[in-house]
Amino acid sequence: MNTRVTVKTLQSMKLKGQKITMLTAYDYPTAKMLDEANVECILVGDSLGMVVQGKTTTIPVTLEEMIYHGEMVARATNRSMVIVDLPFPVGQLSIAHTVESAATIMKRTQCQAVKMEGGHQQAAAIRALVDAGIPTIAHIGLRPQSVHAIGGYRVQRDADQLMKDAKAAEEAGAFCVLIECVPPDLARQATQSIHVPTIGIGAGNGCDGQVLVTNDMLGWNSGYVPKFVRQYADLRKASAEAVAKFMQDVQSGDFPGQSESF
Ligand code: KIV
Predict the structure, then answer these.
(1) Residue 2 domain flag
(2) 227 & 252 share domain
(3) 62 and 191, same domain (yes or no)
(4) Closest-lying ligand 1 atom to the alpha carbon of residue 178
(5) With contact defined as beta carbons under 8 Å apart, do 44 and 229 qualify?
(6) Angle at CA 201, nearest 5°, toward 196 and 205?
């Protein structure tokens, strides 16, 4: 199917109780594979700072880098909705700067939406993005760009704050709310209290959909794997075995063979 997933598709999935799937991609082949698998949403997350660039937080990721990866991902897709993260500190500076940066991302990557960390405090910026015609997802609960302000990657347990953020994001016009690292009952409560879909990560199964970092769920990362990740493959192990076999074949003179030669 080549019809692109839209904000209306996601809204109708929530109404019908159909779960939404979202995975991250940072390059053309991964995005193509996810698009062909009919994943509804592909997120070009600023998690690329950690899983692609090997940095310890998402904070150093730049606008240019988001555009560079977003452009490759969007080019690979026909069906999935492509969402590009606004990197730090785009959503935290002036509203004009936020809108200008998001518009630049949309124009240059050809993505369909952006994601911004923040809820109640960023409501005016979300409203300005939506008024400028930029479909926006609000990312609440644990906000990785605030890791230093909140003292680490911790489960967020403040129910009042979560409900306030979810409601403010919806009222400001966000078409979806992403909820990270909160207890399942809070995420479920937030999901039931708003009309737009929620996508959870480390937030239990009460959200309207789920997102994971693709590199984590495919077992491609070597470092720490968060508790909320389910690992569906071990690509790192399979790749290391393939590399070892290649080296062995070269060293033994078995590769290249006749069929691999001109
Ligand atoms: O940057 C990212 O990939 C994200 C997901 C972890 C939701 O925000």
Answers:
(1) no
(2) no
(3) yes
(4) 7
(5) no
(6) 75
**Domain count of the chain?**
2
The alpha carbon of 213 and the centre of ligand 1 are apart by a number of angstroms equal to 7
Same domain for 28 and 63: yes
| CATH number (domain holding residue 134) | 3.20.20.60
Residues 151 and 249 in one domain: no
Range of 52's domain? 7-231
Q: Tell me if 179 is assigned to some domain.
A: yes
Q: Check whether residue 226 and residue 238 sit in a common domain.
A: no
1 in any annotated domain: no
Whether the model clears a pTM of 0.85, i.e. scores above it, the answer is: yes
Same-domain pairing of 173 and 253: no
pLDDT in tens, 117-140: 999 999 999 999 999 999 999 999
Closest residue (by CA) to atom 3 of ligand 1?
Answer: 45
Instruction: Give 194 Cα–ligand 1 centroid separation in angstroms.
Output: 21
| Nearest atom within ligand 1 for CA of residue 199 | 7
Helices (H), the chain: 7-16, 28-36, 48-51, 63-75, 95-109, 123-131, 147-150, 159-172, 184-193, 214-217, 235-252
Confidence of residue 222 (pLDDT cuts 50, 70, 90): confident
List, as one string, the DSSP characters of 11-78: HHHHHHTPPEEEEE--SHHHHHHHHHTT-SEEEE-TTHHHHTT--SSSTT--HHHHHHHHHHHHHT-S
pLDDT band, very low/low/confident/very high, at 2 (cuts 50, 70, 90): low
pLDDT above 90 (res 208): yes
